[in-house]
Amino acid sequence: IFEMQRAYFIGIGGIGVSALARSFAADGWEVYGSDMASSEITEELEREGIRVSIGNRVPNLKSGTELVVYSAAVPASSPDLSAARELGIKTLSYPEALGELTRRHFTVAVSGSHGKSTTTALLALILIEAGLDPTVIVGTKLKEFSPVGGQVSGSNFRKGQGKYLIIEADEWNRSFHRYAPQVAVVTNIDREHLDTYKTYRGVVAGFRKYFTNILKGGCLVYNARDAALRSLVPAPGRRGVRLIPFGSGKFERHKLSIPGVHNQMNAEAAWQAAKFLGVPRKTAEKAFASYRGAWRRFEKLETKDLSGKAGSGFAGKLKTELYSDYAHHPTEIKATLSAFREKFPKRRIVVVFQPHQIDRLTRLFLDFVRAFGDADRVVFFPTYRVEGREEGKGKDAFALAQEVRKRKPDTFYAENISRVMKLVEPDRKAGAVIIFMGAGDMDQKVRKFLEI
User: Fold this and answer.
1) Which helix (H) or strand (E) holds 347?
2) What is the pTM for the complete model shown?
């Protein structure tokens, strides 16, 4: 299938699908695609020469298209997908297409409920520093990866000339069951993607099946502090797969610019995988020291002077520190806020949180209620509804705000960005650290409002 020349990507604005589209383009394919809404990513792809159509009411297929790749979130009723199948065009889901790539390369796959993107990024930078020149597909954007057009935020794809392919292996919708890595890195197992697995036991079973995909003679780098992972590791070991635990005891802290115990664990996972590939520790530490952070992972927002912006609630120059972070699961929220408290022990910390997906919020509602202990003030933004993944009704951001307010009186609900900015204006004047947190579209709305 990879001898074809023209490919169409449905849901091309997604962080994974866009990276794969860039991979195909780098390999000489004519690539184009569509998405339901424009975004920072679709605009970047346009600047890179990839045509993107917005909306899917009318099929956007070009004649001569040999392959259609679609996001796993795209419904079967999609006009583009239906048209492709009626025309007899080869169709592959994103994980199916990425799975084909893993079978053509020496693949290092990073999975786990939390920390995948950071660990993938750190491992990629180590191998680049070591001169191994990997190809990388990651679920965030790295400033170290310079795409066509040179956007400041970087890219989620890097084309290398070496034999290694490093990927972020997502477990949602059992996507990682399609991949065949030589080296699998697993950061942890948690109650995540319960819309797919239903229960924690189901999540664990999903990882058990994934481990059977590790190629014979390969390697599993796993978090030995995680009880579920400890219970699973004998099975792949019996298949001739080398087992490398990390984090079981004290280990020498790595030289990271990003704070948090969880990021030290991510770095340790990356280092152990790189060590298996023959990279010396001094090379890894050099890569860690130069790491500038990833898009929406403890990302500091560099804002412009908003003096006189009508109705902004931000008169004068912004003197506070604003951050954007992708944390959207209770475990991630707690770890991220703990890291901010570590970095700013004497500063007032304000978090503006947008829940991501009704199903996740409903299933883990009490965990969300308990997740904001390290914040001095919390503002909740309306729940982001995930296209193609929402079924039925459940808890929403307003209900979460009401429940958190019982524990933390300084808690609010804001229906739009303008209201958010007015609520946090006193904190801005007081020099607080303000974090815009979540995996939905709030980040895009904030950047547009602040003209970033």
Assistant:
1) none
2) 0.89
